[in-house]
Amino acid sequence: MSEMERDGLNESISRRELLLRAGRGSAYLGVMSLLAACGVEGQRAEDTTEREPLPPQAGELVMANWPLYIDKSGPTSPTVTSFEEQHGIDMSYKVVINDNEEFFGTIREPLSQGQSAGYDIIVMTDWMIDKMERLGYLEPLHHDRLPNFADNALPKFKDPIYDPGNAHSIPWAAGITGIGYDISETGRELTSVNDLFDPAFAGRVGMFLEMRDTFDLVLLSMGVEPADATIEQVEQAQKILLDNRENIRGFYGNDYADQLATGNLIASMAWSGDIFALQLDNPNLRFVIPEEGGNAWTDNMAIPAGAEHPTDAHLFMDYVYDPRIAANITEWVWYESPVAGVQQIVQEDVAEGGPGYLKKLAESTLVFPTPETEANTHPYKALEEEEEQVWNDLFQQVIQG
Amino acid sequence: MAYWLLLPGGLWLLLFYVIPTVSMLSISLQEGTLEQGYRLTWNLGIYGEVLLAHDTQILRSLGYGLITTVVCLLIAYPLSYTIAIRGGRWKNVLLFLVILPFFVSFIIRTLSWKFVLADEGIFLGALKSLGVLGEDFRLLGTATAVLGGLIYGFLPFMALPLYVSLEKMDPSLLDAASDLYSSRVSAFLRVTLPLSLPGIFAGTLLTFIPATGDFINAQILGGPNQTMIGNVIQREYLTNNDFPEAAALSFLLMAAILFGIFLYARAIGTEELTG
Amino acid sequence: MRRRWVLPVYTTIVLVYLFLPIGVMILFGFNDIEGRFNFAWQGFTLRWYGELFDIPDLADALRNSLLVAAGSTVVATALGTMIALALTRHRFRGQASTNLFIFLPMATPEVVLGASLLSLFVTAGVSRGFVTILIAHIMFNISYVVVTVKARTAGFNNEWEEAAKDLGATPWTAFRTVTFPLIFPGVLAAAVLAFALSVDDYVITLFNAGQTLTFPLWVVGASRFGVPPQVNVMGTLIFIFGVALALAVVPLQRRRYRLPTAQAMPPISRG
């Protein structure tokens, strides 16, 4: 169904119908308010080994993703187009995710009431996958429908801590959190998170709004493995941040990149792919994984509970694990691919004469980390709800003065 | 007759504002988490808790709102006056020009300001190379930048009602006033200003209320020390999933604002303003 | 008669201030960038104007925003004007409270209001999309309309409309020919405000849009690394459209609606 038709469907809820529904809704709501007034059922997922078989292919698919996360040519994505042609599926690719929590906030309500969120595939960062899975908001995956994943996924992306056995998600792209800086401004190479606290850079240093990234890097600088961090250690990390907050200009989301590029920041916590992109315009920018360690994270495809077209979703999820397709995406997105063999394909493309940046891409350890690079990266801790609350509270005191 | 006029709008608000707000109230009195569920425990204590925990941000927001309102009033009054009284043929065009920037998405506008206010950007860079400002001078991430964004953003909210109120004045009144009073200042204070009071009242409220609850300017142009209550509520809701706290904070904000309006209206004298 | 230039100069300065970020936006719609980032000036080009609709969803987002804004403006202005009239022309029980509570929607933080409204829709089984966005926008616009119109109708007196009715006009004709022209500037101002608010709304729309994109939602998604040239171009085009509209209004300057002198005298007590 095209988007116009879908809009048409919504518009065809006539006023009368709406009033009726609203009336029904009000009455329902009256009851629900009474019930809600007495509280809402918890959402703790229950263990289930039973799984419903997949329905037949529906011919439609709706996917939500982050901006600049798929290859693009003009207004469309070649990957989406070729997928549509190959499988005869009408796919709607929506760039509606700008922030894990913001997006989750918009789909939580229907999911919590057992309704479809409206998307068949969503791409969320690993810790959000863990959270959604604990709440029972994700469909279990049918790995018999994902042969490309089984054959081509790099071993390190299989069976991750946050989603054992890839029961609910498979990676879309991965990246590293480290430090980005402008060497012409800093005058020297940076090697550690503690460099961010250097008074010489006072007021021109940035950190992340993303609690896990910021805390983990500081924990690593304390010599603590984030996955094992205790509350006391996090409190120490918080103290370090509070003590040095004068040095920090701000806590940023995606906008750290343009602040680095325009010189408002000379050093900041950064994501690998962003710095690679910025380097093409400004070779003075450097990315370094702190010597004490950086964060490795993945963004993952998952199917929200109650999705309307799960079979088609599986088809697309498997489609992008074909190395050629994965290479197409990586050549555009510049983040690490979970698919084996992508680097070779990119090198072949370079040999055949591709755009200028392709060569840099093929050689980049940001996009294709070497084992040494990987050794120095660490995953997030899979936080239980209570722990997450404590961490969030501690972090909030740092970022909201 | 009045009730018929009130009915359609009232019904709409009842359905789509009051009901959600009542459920918000119920949520504020609940306790729990996403995974464990929420139970209505009539936890009135939460209001005290959040007030103490976030008193800084609440006061800061009220302060920013007040400053924004006062500065907007000072800037907008001469502007609206000029357009309404001296605008002549060009009145509507000028007014439209005042509103026009706000048809462009606020994101574009705010990001453009971010660009303009960059450390070495057009303004600051030029001023720095002229030696007017020190090398370390910064605007982004300061209260000044946030207030600048707020004032810019809410100027038309103040200018429009002022204009509407000033425009309705009869010019012969102004003539009569200048005959009666020896100085133009006197004429202004005795005649023009009081007549424009409804516009001032509307404008200050249309500015103060949304400005106090704003979060976007603090988010884009400010730093940790400029956090406003809107940012806190945003974070409580989206990150902490602490719906009761977010709801309680919202009600505290609404109550504070309502109380302020009440006092303000009392001070000005509502009969004059509402007929 | 001295210093008559002060106010016009002041007005010009303020207008320049208002248009500064717009100027930046227009300028950067011509930026000839190599990579993906639109931070620094790299040269002049017109190509973004040609590639404007190369961005997916842009046309839809724009259309949705304009339709929602138009619809919510019309409805909210009508509903809000009626409330404003009720509050200023009539006396009724609960008037003081209504006067106070009409400010509440403006004071309610968007994230909680948007989420609660979403909760209502989800519970009632209404699927989120164009209609729910429209409903939400009408809801928050009503208060702004009421406050703006009241600035005009304050001190309003029924006499003139009564006089018209005495002369044989039906209530509707009396309203249409006497009252409405008098309050029209206020209604127009309220409509303009409502339109701008609707076109710009982000948070409440975010929660209640389902998968329908509106312009602000789209802009945020497209502006991950600063504002891309195409977004600046679109903003510029919207702006030019607005300027054209403003210029079109100039010939319509003929009639002036003003209360007669006797009506506008300030009450003696405030002297």
Structural commentary:
Chain A has 401 residues and is of the alpha/beta class. Chain A has 17 helices and ten strands. In chain A, strand 1, helix 3 and strand 2 form a beta-alpha-beta unit. In chain A, helix 9 runs parallel beside helix 17 and helix 14 packs antiparallel against helix 15. The longest helix of chain A has 23 residues. Chain A starts with a helix and ends with a helix. The N terminus of chain A is likely disordered. Chain B has a single domain, classed as MetI-like (MetI-like fold), CATH 1.10.3720. Helices cover 75% and strands 3% of the residues of chain B. In chain B, strands 1-2 form a two-stranded antiparallel ribbon. In chain B, a hairpin with a 3-residue loop joins strand 1 and strand 2. In chain B, helix 1 crosses helix 13 and helix 3 packs parallel to helix 7. The radius of gyration of chain B is 22 Å and the shape is globular. Chain C has 271 residues and is mainly alpha-helical. Helix content of chain C is 67%, strand content 0%. In chain C, helix 3 runs parallel beside helix 7. The radius of gyration of chain C is 23 Å and the shape is globular. Chain C starts with 5 loop residues before the first helix and ends in a 22-residue tail after the last helix. Classes of the chains: A alpha/beta (401), B mainly alpha (275), C mainly alpha (271). Chains in contact: A-B, A-C, B-C. Chains B and C meet through helix 1, helix 3, helix 4, helix 5 and helix 7 of B and helix 1, helix 3, helix 4, helix 5 and helix 6 of C.
Short summary:
The complex is a heterotrimer of chains A (401), B (275) and C (271). By secondary structure, chain A is an alpha/beta fold. Chain A is 43% helix and 15% strand.
Rounded to an integer in angstroms, the radius of gyration calculated over CA atoms of chain A is 23 Å
CATH hierarchy, class of the largest domain in chain A:
Alpha Beta
The CATH superfamily of the largest domain in chain A bears the name Periplasmic binding protein-like II
Number of DSSP helical runs of chain C: 12
Outline of chain A: globular
| Class per helix and strand makeup of chain A | alpha/beta
Approximately how much beta-strand content do the residues of chain C carry?
under 5%
pLDDT below 50 for ≥5 consecutive residues: which ranges of chain C? Answer: 253-271
Please give the number of β-strands of chain C: 0
| Rounded mean pLDDT score of chain C | 81
Order of helices and strands of chain A: HHEHEHEHHEHEHHEHEHEEHHHHHEH
- Helix proportion range of chain A: 40-55%
Largest sheet of chain A: 10 strands, mixed
